[in-house]
Amino acid sequence: MPDANEKLRSEFNDWAAAGRGEEMEAHHISIAQQTIARMALHQGERVLDLGCGAGWATRLLARAVEGGPGMAVGQDISDEMIARARAAATDVENVLFVVGAADEIPWRDEYFEKVLSIESFYYYPDQEAVLRELYRVLAPGGSLFVLINLYQENPYSLRWVESLKVAVHARSEHEYEEMLRAQGFVDVASEHVPDLTPTPEEYSGTWFANASELREFKQIGALLLLARKPPAE
After folding, report:
1. Which domains, from first to last, does the chain contain?
2. b/e per residue, 87-99, with b = 16+ CB within 10 A?
3. CA–CA dist 89, 95 (Å, integer)
4. By C-alpha distance, which of 25, 33, 31, 35 is closest to 220?
5. How far apart are CA 55 and CA 25, in angstroms?
6. Cα(first)–Cα(last) distance of the chain, in Å?
7. Residue 110 to residue 55: CA distance in whole angstroms
8. What pLDDT, in 10s, does the model give residues 145-195?
9. From the centroid of its chain, how far is CA 97?
10. pTM higher than 0.85 for the full model?
């Protein structure tokens, strides 16, 4: 879907120029750290961070798998995000950043033991095509972890949809689970990951009416989709 992907590239290049890639670390560090712990990464594993933005989570992954063939690859459609990710990772030897649309992963079949995607999956125009690519690059028995804040069961997140400059998907947990199964994944499940960062007593932003709403949004948490590629027979 070249037109939709080009819109995404343009939008996230603008985000990169505004420093919003780095801002995402502060916004998502709590749910990201909990998810990375859930991944149970081991030294020597190869892991992909799809939709890596400025690369902050990719660096965490790289340090978790450091040793032997262990490496983390961060991919993003925005060349400006990738430029910033590379600049911030000069002291990390086992990390690599590549530019590319999520439905065209420039890697050989069955390479990665684990794949992580944080707060990007709902942007992808053809989510089924992305899952097919992820299935292709995952090694047999490999695990997929997709973390998103925008989904039907968190009504506060739906307020963002009309304000975004690009189209997004706002599906339910059940719809995502069925989509994963339809693409051949097994052991499909979903969990909620609460944001454990402190909530200020007073809220002055635009998305929530008050601090109580923000606190409830954090308690509902992000949706973590879990799945595995079947092991080799």
Report:
1. 2-228 (3.40.50.150)
2. ebbeebebbebbe
3. 8
4. 31
5. 9
6. 34
7. 23
8. 999 999 999 999 999 898 888 999 999 999 999 999 999 999 999 999 999
9. 15
10. yes
